Amino acid sequence: MNEKNIVGELAADFVKDGMVVGLGTGSTVYFTLMKLGALVEAGLSIQGIPTSVQTAELAKKLQIPLASMDEVKKIDIAIDGADEFDSNLNLIKGGGGALVREKIVAKAAEKFIVVADPSKMVKTLGAFPLPVEVVPFGAVQTENYIRELQGKTKLRQTNGMPFQTDNGNFIIDCSFPSIIKPQELESILNNIPGVVDNGLFVGMADMVITIDPGHKPVLLEREKQ
Ligand SMILES: O=C(CO)[C@H](O)[C@H](O)COP(=O)(O)O
């Protein structure tokens, strides 16, 4: 089993009968979904809240019952991947372009569990370019404002066209030298007109599930404030 497979499956152990479960996006949480699909087939009863069209399609194939955010009173647990995590369990997310829905679901969840292979662990966030979702209207101007924050920016493209999120927006990937104050940068970016949200998830993760070089599971928990 590869690292993503191990950590992805481990997270499914936290899902109990009757729970409403936020279903993240990406190649690690894919393995959580596969495991949940097998558990549902064996009789587990859950409702999933998908964070992307891609995840909704996979969950439907696996016959995991789905609901929308507005149909549920609460989300018991959300499980998602990350592009980077630090020792405070702050994250960069959005490599797959689903950061807005992922943040909405993570925020609403009573417990937010991140599944990440050890390559995602960093001392300081920022080696992975920070995804920022912007509305298409005035995107060039929005990008200019972001650049004023000393970040290098790149409009994400697929096949020569701007990548479009499930919300119909664009993504600007931003390289900052290193992100010493993630909370500050998160709110500065979100104050720029045209920015919908960015991939900094600060103080949100309750647990990161990763593994050590010997492939033993490591569960990192956030200290209670
Ligand atoms: O934030 C995300 C998608 O928007 C993903 O969770 C993140 O990119 C990690 O993906 P993977 O597990 O494929 O490495």
UniProtKB/TrEMBL annotation:
<comment type="subunit">
    <text>Homodimer.</text>
</comment>
<keyword id="KW-0413">Isomerase</keyword>
<dbReference type="InterPro" id="IPR020672">
    <property type="entry name" value="Ribose5P_isomerase_typA_subgr"/>
</dbReference>
<dbReference type="InterPro" id="IPR004788">
    <property type="entry name" value="Ribose5P_isomerase_type_A"/>
</dbReference>
<comment type="function">
    <text>Catalyzes the reversible conversion of ribose-5-phosphate to ribulose 5-phosphate.</text>
</comment>
<feature type="active site" description="Proton acceptor">
    <location>
        <position position="102"/>
    </location>
</feature>
<comment type="pathway">
    <text>Carbohydrate degradation; pentose phosphate pathway; D-ribose 5-phosphate from D-ribulose 5-phosphate (non-oxidative stage): step 1/1.</text>
</comment>
<feature type="binding site">
    <location>
        <begin position="25"/>
        <end position="28"/>
    </location>
    <ligand>
        <name>substrate</name>
    </ligand>
</feature>
<dbReference type="GO" id="GO:0005829">
    <property type="term" value="C:cytosol"/>
</dbReference>
<dbReference type="Pfam" id="PF06026">
    <property type="entry name" value="Rib_5-P_isom_A"/>
</dbReference>
<feature type="binding site">
    <location>
        <begin position="80"/>
        <end position="83"/>
    </location>
    <ligand>
        <name>substrate</name>
    </ligand>
</feature>
<comment type="similarity">
    <text>Belongs to the ribose 5-phosphate isomerase family.</text>
</comment>
<dbReference type="InterPro" id="IPR037171">
    <property type="entry name" value="NagB/RpiA_transferase-like"/>
</dbReference>
<dbReference type="GO" id="GO:0004751">
    <property type="term" value="F:ribose-5-phosphate isomerase activity"/>
</dbReference>
<dbReference type="GO" id="GO:0009052">
    <property type="term" value="P:pentose-phosphate shunt, non-oxidative branch"/>
</dbReference>
<dbReference type="GO" id="GO:0006014">
    <property type="term" value="P:D-ribose metabolic process"/>
</dbReference>
<feature type="binding site">
    <location>
        <begin position="93"/>
        <end position="96"/>
    </location>
    <ligand>
        <name>substrate</name>
    </ligand>
</feature>
<feature type="binding site">
    <location>
        <position position="120"/>
    </location>
    <ligand>
        <name>substrate</name>
    </ligand>
</feature>
<protein>
    <recommendedName>
        <fullName>Ribose-5-phosphate isomerase A</fullName>
        <ecNumber>5.3.1.6</ecNumber>
    </recommendedName>
</protein>
